[in-house]
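Example 3.2
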Amino acid sequence: MTKTQLVCDKNQLNWGLKAAKAIAGKSPYDVVQMRVSPDRDYLYICAVNAEATLVAKVELLVANISSEEDEIITIDKAKIPALILATAETGKKSEDSRPMAGICIRGKEVDFTDENGAGRGVDLTTIHRNDSAEIGDPVRTIIRVKQ
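Structure, written as tokens:
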């Protein structure tokens, strides 16, 4: 089985997940997705509810996409707190490196890993992706609203 690998700024990922949690409440129609930008420079953390749309932009340092279906990952809202905890600052700060997180997608499994120093590749948590949800294109929605 082929796998998709993404590496991004851990702090930006954490902030995006926190913002998504604030938007996607308990309604079954609220959705959280991670979307890789067409140029593969960014990972967009998207959340929608009946009244709001959120797009948080996370810089991608590595984007090896193995299949088109891995460009959009729908996440169970109930798993967001675990992802926030897994991507939180550990207190160990290094002046010469920025905290990075890895996202490895193999079919339905999505592993979140630490990508710094001796901990490189160590699993922080694993979730199962939800079936795809049609929420339109949150990125275009935000761009249109800004114009």
